[in-house]
Amino acid sequence: MSIVRKIERDGLAVLPGLFPLPLLRRLRAEVLRRHESGELRERGLVRDIAGRYTSILPFEGPFLDARLYANPALAKVLPSLLGPDYRLSSLEAVIAESGAAAQYQHIDGPLRWGAGLSGLPPYALALATPLCDVDEENGPTALWPGSHRAAGPRLPSERAITRRYPQRRMTGRFGFSYLYDYRTFHRGTPNNSGEARPLLMLVFARSWYRDPNLQDVSAGVAIRERDLKKIPKRHRDLFLLAPAARRPLWGAKK
Ligand SMILES: [Fe+2]
Question: Would you place residue 61 in the very low, low, confident or very high pLDDT band (cuts 50, 70, 90)?
Answer without folding.
Answer: very high
